[in-house]
Structure of IS200/IS605 family transposase:
Amino acid sequence: MALWRLYYHLIWATKERQPLIQLELEAPLYNYIIGKADAKSCIVHAIGGIEDHVHLVVSIPPHISIADFVKNLKGSSSHYFNTTFFAPKSHKFAWQEGYGVFSLGSKQLEQAVIYVQNQKTHHSQKTAIAYLEQVAHEDDPPKYWHQT
């Protein structure tokens, strides 16, 4: 078994930043994401967000690429939600293309976890960290967002 300590702060948004993550869907969505990450031997340190985006602090084993991990989570969670919570031909749950990823050191992990766990407070009090909350436009994404 390899020894690894890799920490990432991931952020991705709903399609067109629509407020699709309603309060009653938040727990099932977060539990689904945690379950999928767990199945891939990833460690979720924190998950949080608001109606139009999700933050995830996670440790991903080195044999899994970050891009593959995010692609799998976004694709499977939108499929799960569309087949479980949304009626056919109704409004569909979808994620926007791309995501933000920031690597963390072990000394930054606790601060990142606290930030993610307090997303609703940060957004309501306007104390969110601007560069973590950028709106990525498909035609002009910030250079630190990766397209998937």
Observations:
- DSSP finds four helices and five strands in the chain.
- Strands lie at 7-13, 43-50, 53-59, 99-104, 145-146.
- Helices lie at 23-39, 66-84, 106-117, 119-124.
